[in-house]
Amino acid sequence: MTEEKSTFGSRLGVILAAAGSAVGLGNVWRFPTEVGQGGGAAFILIYIFFMLVLGVPVMISELAIGRHGQKNVSHSFFTMSGNSRPWAYMGWYPVIAGILVLSYYAVVAGWTLEYAYQAAINGFAGKSAQQYAADFGAFSSDVFSPILYLAFILVLTAVIVAMGVQKGIERAAKVMMPVLFLCIAVLVVCSFSLPGVERGLTFLLKPDFSKVDSSTVLSAMGQAFFSLSVGICCLCTYGCYARKDVNLMKDSIHVASIDTLVAVMSGLIIFPAVYSIDGLEPNAGPSLVFITLPNVFQQVFADMPVLAYGFSLLFYILLVMAALTSSISMLEMSASIFIRKFNMSRPLACGMIVLVCMVLGTACSLSFGVWQDITVCGLGIFDLFDFAVAKLLMPIGAFLICGFVAWRVEEKTLRNELTNNGTIPQPFYPIYRLIVKYVAPICILTIFLRELGVM
Ligand code: PFF
């Protein structure tokens, strides 16, 4: 009876959809921003540690919870907990988190659309590096155009999700992922020919732990969760649509490997490029990618303008698509609850949610311009949303999810879910169990309390 279930037709469906959700602006835009602000290599090492110790186990847990219930997140928590009402309220977590994250993510997705447009009309040609910085500043602080792009992205996301996304995602991801990967690989090679390559690589590969403090650690943890789309039940939602013969542990490791590789490769593109531009610092923040990348294309292919044109167009189109497969998953996680719980039609649920996101997203967008002076606890509106999602909701959600599978769910139920009722061996199961039971909750709690100044 479920349109969702029937559409994840292949075993590959869930891995592709999860990879589509994971690989996105978090890798190409947020990761370099965080690495730049977190001091480079030391941040990356801590990030990889969190990816392995927290990100992957939480991903496995989310997929297992989702697949166990099959219907929706709320139902999954309910049945897996042995029919506990309070756990069913976890169904609201993806609704709130999905709306918050989509609201500000769509702003940046909108920026990529403008850059794809600029690439298409050859708008990057013949400009100096400083001009890219000035252009970006003017565009992002403008009142109207970023909001128009935001609306466009939200409508596009809503239309795809309203049509029933899984076949779309499955097919799009199958084509898009390898092309994006190839494109990024070529760009790494290109970036290595830039004059800033040595300083960029030093920044990325030589850890300086003196720059690490408790907030760097919280940021690295937040980035690991954000990049894998875990902690807010996004993957629980996709888990609901997964087939019973999928090897959830193996697939989670595949998704995390692809995701980390894309993130590190993005760093290898961005930082040599940063050091090739006079006056640009690696800690420049969210604008970094939008200033350095157009410059890489133009500098590397200075003698071959056709290639500069073709490459930047291809790259930005792919970036828009990567952003879309992530934003689709954000909308899907909120919409699926409305559809099931209130028997709403898909278009209605999607329409309502994106309307709310449009209002919140407009505030986020304006915080780069006319509303830049509005701050809460020292954070602008956009940064506040990002903080709330990556550094509050994701770690808290991850803590609850680990606590749930380790302490609430019967061990046999979990083992059966992960071994497909004993039909596939899971040699890493004991390690996974140890992590979700002790390591992950203690780790998350400690980092949290330290950041709050309690420890
Ligand atoms: N993982 C996505 C990215 O790296 O771009 C962002 C994301 C998707 C975060 C879905 C959260 C989420 F639920």
Q: Any descriptors?
A:
455 residues, mainly alpha, Hydantoin permease, two-stranded antiparallel ribbon, disordered N terminus, binds 4-fluoro-L-phenylalanine
Tell me what the structure shows.
This protein is an all-alpha fold. It has a single domain, classed as Hydantoin permease, CATH 1.10.4160.10. It contains 20 helices and 2 strands. It has a two-stranded antiparallel sheet. Helix 3 packs antiparallel against helix 12. It is globular and about 65 Å long. The chain binds 4-fluoro-L-phenylalanine (PFF).
Please provide a brief summary of the model.
By secondary structure, this protein is an all-alpha fold.
Strand content: under 5%
The overall pLDDT average reads 89
**Please, how many domains?**
1
In this entry the ligands are: 4-fluoro-L-phenylalanine
Please name the CATH topology. Hydantoin permease
- Give the strand order, joined by hyphens, for the main sheet: 1-2
Kindly provide the radius of gyration, computed on alpha-carbon positions and rounded to a whole number of angstroms. 21 Å
Q: Largest sheet, if any?
A: 2 strands, antiparallel
Per CATH, the superfamily is Hydantoin permease
Uncertain segments are 1-6
- Residue share in helix: over 70%
Distance between the termini: 51 Å
CATH class: Mainly Alpha
Q: Per CATH, which architecture?
A: Orthogonal Bundle
Shape: globular
